Amino acid sequence: MKLLRHRDIPEEKYTNAFLGFGPEESNFVVELTYNYGVTSYDIGEGFGHFGIATEDVYKLVEKLRALGGNITREPGPVKGGASVIAFVKDPDGYTFELIQRGPTPEPLCQLMLRVGDLDRSIKALGMKLLRKIDRPEYKYTLAMVGYADEYQTIVLELTYNYGVTEYTKGNAYAQIAVSTDDVYKSAEVVNHVTQELGGKITRQPGLIPGINTKITSFLDPDGWKTVLVDNVDFLRELHKED
Q: Does the annotation list 192 as a binding residue?
């Protein structure tokens, strides 16, 4: 990925780096956070992996291997299918699935999280259900949810392992961020959804100290955090830093 943006917030004692395959206005990006003085974190059991699409998994794996990368699953077809994948880990222990695909506008194509109730999670997030895959022979079910076709933008891959209803979250993976035209109205909708399905609002709508961008945040029924970010403020923040 490319380093798109870097910001230091000394009054809050953290630094961010934003990485992605395209500009933040149109692409999904990873926000890396360094908290002053903290050198290690617990990833937990619930976070699964990031998915990256590439036209040649074998070639990318060899490149990563030459750089000292940790290949945890050699490239090859998935069990019972034709898709070619591989798995690698970064130096902090995050897992990346490499998926062989044709050209795509969004190579950062998946974020996998484990959930305890798949149907509840699909409804709670409010995204479109793109496809659902049940693999009883391996005792899990997957649901791909997102705002557009999974070959055009990033999707959430929600995984339900038969009989498992809770996972440890650790303290490393933080949240996903979704833009909205009105954080106040969005917070009202979230409040209704959490009352019906579970979860809770963790930050009432308002400005982030030191950044002046309006956000609201909530936990879904599985405890995964989502931050809703004001569109206008976000674009202003980007242009100000440019």
A: no
Q: In what order do the strands lie in the sheet with 140-146?
A: 70-77, 84-89, 95-100, 47-54, 108-114, 155-161, 140-146, 128-135
Q: Is 97 among the annotated ligand-binding positions?
A: yes
What is the tens place of the pLDDT at every residue in 10-66?
A: 999 999 999 999 999 989 999 999 999 999 999 999 999 999 999 999 999 999 999
Q: For residues 141 and 132, give the distance between their C-alpha atoms in angstroms, rounded to a whole number.
A: 7
Relative to beta strand 47-54, strand 108-114 is antiparallel
Catalogue the active-site residues: 97
CA atoms of 173 and 98, how far apart (whole Å): 19
For residue 153, what are the contacts with CB-CB under 8 A and spacing of at least 6? 28, 105, 106, 146, 147
Read off the pTM: 0.92
For residues 137 and 148, the answer to whether their CB atoms sit within 8 Å is: no
- Annotated ligand binding at 239? The verdict is no
Q: What is the pLDDT of residue 241?
A: 61
Q: Decide: 143 and 194 in contact? Cβ < 8 Å.
A: no
Q: DSSP secondary-structure letter at 78?
A: P
| For helices 118-125 and 183-197, angle between their N-to-C axes, nearest 10 degrees | 160
Which parts of the chain are beta strand (E)?
A: 2-9, 14-20, 29-35, 47-54, 70-77, 84-89, 95-100, 108-114, 128-135, 140-146, 155-161, 176-180, 200-207, 214-219, 225-230
